[in-house]
Amino acid sequence: MLADKASVHAAGDLLFVNFHHVCNDADLPFPQLHHVTPDRFEAQIDALGAMFDFPPIAAVESALDAGVGLGGPSCVLTFDDGLADHYATVMPILDRKGISGIFSVNTAPWIDRRLLSVHRAHLLSAAFSYLELAAEIETAAEASGVSHRVADVAPDLARSQYRYDDIETARVKYYLNAVIPQAARDVVLERVFASRLGDEADHVNRHYLRPDHVSALSAAGHTIGLHTHRHLHLASAESHVRTDDLCLNRALLNEAAGPIRWISYPYGGPTSYDASVVALADDLGCRFGLTMKRAINVPGADRMRLSRVDNNDVVGGKRPMDWAELRT
To answer: Which end of the chain, N or C, is surrounded by fewer C-beta atoms within 10 Å?
Structure first.
């Protein structure tokens, strides 16, 4: 039985919980693609609601600006990557429950009509395992001038980003997303995707939010955030590349939803953003930044480095952490 809010959490606690795919099993291109079904999503919201309030985002912003709590333990639901089911499935559920969320959107698919590299990787890993793909990824990376190998990835670095995976899978994922430079990564994943799964056009059409979907989310009272144009690993990108990328992301989202105040740093782990990335986001008008440091935020938290958990980390998830772990 869920405990009473006040007996588990302090009044100033602020928990951000992140989701990606929320859809029915039958809607998936590959059954192994990580997702939450709508029924499980609603059940998890209800379980969290027994412990936390779901405040309006404007109230959250005011509290963060002032460095104070919201008066009771509070939870904000966030949704990354600009996926089509955020409009088709998530928005109706949140609207029916009177909950406002934060949707951080990649915009390159609007222009390129291509899958983002991160989603090529997701789809490939849903059809195959990362370990099956590792040799092919290394071969394609070597052909693109990358000298490092998966074996060069330090296990602790891989574990810091991918806590749910076995260590060998985590090393392949870290190699792909953080070691291979962005331009080379795009080429590597295009080659592997074409070799293994063929044409990606059909996947693009059903995978992403459209600009009018983002406008509708904003009009319904939800908050739109930056997530970079191409889902960049910002800390490892060259300065001019990340500046150009974030400026384009902001321009497209401003057009769809008005001024943007939030950013969700792609990947969100400790090596995916740094002080220069935070400074750039601040320069671009962002007042609030979401990481994937797994912790509960307390009054006075750094508003540009807010902690956040995966939906699997909390009650109703696959591997819920003890609340005490989220206070360390």
So the answer is: N
Reported as a single tens digit per residue, the pLDDT across 295-316 is: 999 999 999 999 999 999 999 9
* Number of CB atoms found within 10 A of residue 84's CB: 17
Cβ atoms of 178 and 233 closer than 8 Å = yes
- C-alpha distances (whole Å) from 217 to each of 100, 102, 212, 239 are 10, 10, 9, 31
Each domain of the chain, given as residue ranges in start order, spans: 5-112+209-327, 117-199
Phi–psi pair at 160, nearest 5 degrees: -65, -30
pLDDT in tens, 128-153: 999 999 999 999 999 999 999 999 99
Can you give the pTM of this predicted structure? 0.90
Task: Give the list of residues 6+ apart from residue 218 with CB closer than 8 angstroms, or none.
Answer: 224, 256, 257, 258
Structure tokens of 224?
Answer: 């739109």
Phi-psi region of 140 (alpha: psi -120 to 50; beta: other; left: phi over 0): alpha
Classified as helix, coil or strand, 319 is: coil
Q: Which fold has domain 5-112+209-327?
A: TIM Barrel (3.20.20)
Task: Give the CA distances from residue 143 to residues 13, 51, 112, 133, 148, in Å, rounded to whole numbers and listed in that order.
Answer: 49, 52, 24, 16, 12
Question: What CA–CA distance (Å, rounded) separates 7 from 109?
Answer: 45
